[in-house]
Amino acid sequence: MTLLVNHDDAQIGLDEETKDSAQIRALVFVRDRGIVVLWIALIIAFSIWASPYFGTWDNAVLIANAAAVAALYAAGVGVGVMSGSLDISIPGVAALAGVVCGKLVSSQGSVWLGIVVALLVGVTFGIINGLIALRGYNPLIITIGTLSVTSGLASVVAGGYAIPGLTQLTFMGSSRYLGIPAPVWIVMVLYVVLTLFITQTRHGLRIMAVGGNMEAVRRSGIHSNVYRVLGFAIGSFCAALGGLVSTAVATEADPSASPGIIFTALTAVALSGVALTGGRGSLPRVLVGALILATISNALTIKGIQPYWSTVVTGLLLLFALGMESSVKAAVERRLMNAASASAHSGRQ
User: Fold this and answer.
1) Which segments cross the bilayer (predicted)?
2) What is the pTM of this model?
3) What is the CATH number of the domain that holds 186?
4) Distance CA 293, CA 148 (A)
């Protein structure tokens, strides 16, 4: 009789473990693929609601183009967060890169010199942020300071006014290649390169590891400081590239650092399920997050709804994403503990 009871208890434990495993897989799917499902659902809903204008190829190109600049900034924020540091200086770096390029193009007539110097300026400020962070200062405070510095320098370089007439940059702004706007091509190349770098190279994997637990990486004999600085540098490079594309689209370099840049980028990152504590995330999902924001804005515009409602929806999505991240993380941890407990109980039987 005792053996029968033990067998039944073991079977119940096994059933509970199987149930917990299924629930964990479902939660992980929601965390990792939920944003794609959400985007598809929005496309279907808006195709019906905003018919017949929303569900067309031309409108899809408009959405992709609208999402492109935000996706560039989101890539910078995403890499920074995954490497363990939230970089707030991105709007300032973007503005400074844009005016540096604009100044060189208008005064020297050299487009490629302006682009290269602007990108180097971005990387330089990323390295500076990283080196200061290594001294133990809070990255958030550091990058707020850098935001102020770069915003001020952008106004100094531009003389306080926008630099107009930069038509030489249209090849990376309003031009189209195979019917696709240039910013979309730039985003595709950037995301493919960064995704391959982070997921398929030793240095990229170490950046993620540093974001998850820098002390553990250091104790394993890896120079964690190098990879933390590299994370900042990549983020600032993306910010500078975003500034260049914004300048090319507008054909003028604006020295003002728009706070909406970091808000939109952070929303796209949070929607993608990137852990704000670092060490986990996916750049393709960050791209989908940027596309979701552009999709919502586009649909509201088609229906003639005031654009400030898009800001409201964006804020609500950010709060929803943060809540979902916290809830899913807690649920996964709880299920894992239950599974471990059930397995241990079964083993004792």
Assistant:
1) 35-54, 60-81, 111-133, 140-163, 183-205, 226-250, 256-276, 283-302, 308-328
2) 0.84
3) 1.10.3470
4) 27
